[in-house]
Write a structure and sequence with these properties.
Number of strands: 4
Number of helices: 2
Strand content: 15-25%
Low-confidence stretches: none
Structural class: alpha+beta
Helix content: 10-25%
Length: 86
């Protein structure tokens, strides 16, 4: 039997092709919340915006707040969704 050394990047490319039709999470990025005295701001890293393909002229962000009954003693949850422009 002959041993063959395959480069790591080739293995990674093949793995990516095998999983091409599967949903996957690319990674997580934490960013600080900035308060300027009037409003809060989130900065989206350029590499994230480029990867997702955000168009600053057409796309918008939808902020959705989910509240819970008082007896559950849970803080409200915030979900931020990218809404693509047409």
């Amino acid at each position: 039997m002959v041993k063959v050394n395959i480069k790591e990047d080739v293995i990674k490319e093949v793995e990516d092709l095998v999983d091409i039709n599967k949903e996957k999470v690319e990674g997580k990025v934490e960013v600080p919340v900035i308060f300027d005295g009037r409003q809060y701001t989130l900065k989206i890293p350029k590499r994230v915006a480029d990867h997702v393909g955000i168009d600053s002229k057409k796309d918008k962000f939808l902020f959705q707040i989910r509240t819970f009954p008082i007896e559950e003693s849970k803080k409200p949850e915030l979900t931020i969704t990218l809404k693509r422009g047409e």
